[in-house]
UniProtKB/TrEMBL annotation:
Gene source species: Nitrospirillum viridazoti CBAmc
The protein, known as: Nucleotidyltransferase
UniProt keyword annotation of Transmembrane present: no
Domain of life: Bacteria
Pfam families referenced in this protein's UniProt entry, alphabetically: NTP_transf_3
Keywords linked to the UniProt accession: Magnesium, Nucleotidyltransferase, Transferase
Gene Ontology MF terms: nucleotidyltransferase activity
Domain MobA-like NTP transferase: 3-131
InterPro entries on file: GlmU-like (IPR050065), MobA-like_NTP_Trfase (IPR025877), Nucleotide-diphossugar_trans (IPR029044)
C-alpha cells in the first residue's frame, strides 16, 4: 500500500531548530525519516511525498534517504503550498487510484496505528480516520489538536474549534479515491483543508473512524511537542 505524506508547509513554529521542518533531526534522524520508518515497519511499500516550501531541497534530501534505505518514493509538487493542507492531498490525485494511507510529515505515531488501518476493508468512496478517544491524555496540546465528534463509528463533525467532541484527530487516514471528490466539494465551498473534506464525507455518511486504543502518537508542531517526542522515542513508545 502507498502512503501519502504531506510535507509542503513552512513549519514556522519549529524554525529555531531548522529551516525545513521535515528535515529537522529528532534523536539523530530527520523528522520525515522517522515518519517513513513507522510506515515501513507497518508494511508500506511506497511513499508519495508532497513538497512545497523549499521543495527542491526537500526532494533532494528525500531522494538520498530513499536510496539509502531502499524505499520507493514518488514526488508531487504543490506550488500553492500557502493554502491549506487539502490542496497538497488533491495534487497527488493522479498517483493514487487505489486505497492509500495519508499522514503528515510532523506526526509520529506507533506503527500499530498504520497497521490497524491497513487491515481494514474500507467502504467504497470512504475515508477512515484514526482517532484517539483518550482526550484526557496530556500528550498533545488540546488547544491545538483537531477535535472529532464520533457516533457509532462515524464522524459527525471535525474541526479545531468545535465544542462538542469525544476524540482527537491523529492525522493518519485510510483513504479511498473518494477523498478527492470530497476535497473538490469542500474547496468549492471555500475550505481547502483536509478537515473540510472530512466534514463533506461526514455529510455523505462516508467518514469512518478507527480507534487507536492506547497507542501513542504526537503532532511535532512546536518546541514543547518536540521535546515530548524525544522522550517518547527514548522510552521506545514511538
Amino acid at each position: 500500500m502507498k502512503c501519502l505524506i504531506v510535507a509542503a508547509g513552512q513549519g514556522t513554529r519549529l524554525r529555531e531548530r531548522g529551516l525545513l521542518k521535515p528535515l529537522i533531526p529528532i534523536k539523530g534522524s530527520p523528522l520525515i525519516e522517522r515518519v517513513m520508518e513507522r510506515g515501513r515497519a507497518a508494511g508500506v511499500t511506497e511513499f508519495v511525498v508532497v513538497s512545497g516550501y523549499r521543495g527542491e531541497d526537500l526532494r533532494a534530501a528525500v531522494d538520498v534517504l530513499a536510496a539509502r534505505v531502499g524505499v520507493a518514493v514518488s514526488h508531487v509538487v504543490n506550488d500553492e503550498w500557502e493554502r491549506a493542507n487539502g490542496v497538497s492531498v488533491h495534487k497527488a490525485k493522479a498517483l493514487l487510484a487505489e486505497p492509500f494511507l495519508l499522514t503528515m510529515c510532523d506526526h509520529l505515531v506507533d506503527p500499530g496505528i498504520f497497521q490497524g488501518l491497513m487491515a481494514l476493508r474500507p467502504e467504497p468512496d470512504s475515508v477512515t480516520l484514526a482517532v484517539d478517544f483518550n482526550i484526557e491524555r496530556p500528550l498533545n496540546d488540546p488547544e491545538d489538536v483537531t477535535r472529532v465528534k464520533c457516533v457509532d463509528g462515524r464522524i459527525v463533525h471535525i474541526g479545531k474549534v468545535i465544542r462538542d467532541f469525544n476524540a482527537f484527530d491523529t492525522g493518519v487516514f485510510l483513504c479511498t479515491p473518494g477523498m478527492f471528490a470530497a476535497l473538490e466539494e469542500s474547496q468549492a465551498k471555500g475550505d481547502d483543508s483536509i478537515s473540510g473534506a472530512m466534514n463533506v464525507l461526514a455529510g455523505w455518511k462516508k467518514a469512518c473512524v478507527h480507534d487507536i486504543g492506547d497507542r501513542f502518537w504526537i503532532d511535532v508542531d512546536d518546541p514543547v511537542a518536540f521535546e515530548k517526542a524525544e522522550k517518547l522515542l527514548d522510552a521506545g513508545q514511538l
